[in-house]
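As a warm-up, study this chain.
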Amino acid sequence: MKNFSTILLAMFVAMFWVFRMIVALTAQLGIDFAGVTPFDMNTEVILLFVVLLCLIFIVKRKMIGALIYLISYGLYFGTFLINNLTSIISGGLGLENALNAFVSIIGIALPIAVLLDLLLDKNRKAHPVDKKTDWFYKNEQYDRQLDERADKNNYRTL
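Now compare it with the structure written out below.
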């Protein structure tokens, strides 16, 4: 996890995970959490555990974690985003529908951003560049200097 973008995205994923956990807990206790409700309680609990595992894979820069995260949240929030948008378009414009649609948009945009971050950084992982050591290991002039200097050092032994 060397990139700042990966650190930020992992923090956003963790914050959204905590938010969804609070929403599920308040719905289970029967408390209204500003109109945001879980769409399906059983699936929500399963997704909380799946996303926790995916977060570990995202921090370790594994592509499988980002793919599972995108597929699970895309299927879960995608269907409910379409349902919320159709209810908003049909005239059911309310705070609860708008908040649920907004949460669904975040739930779809966040996995897409994580996947794009890992896809764009795949080249750097395959060919890492480290300025601290590349001057030594990838510098042919330095190798030639050592070779020429080593040839001139003829020490006599007594």
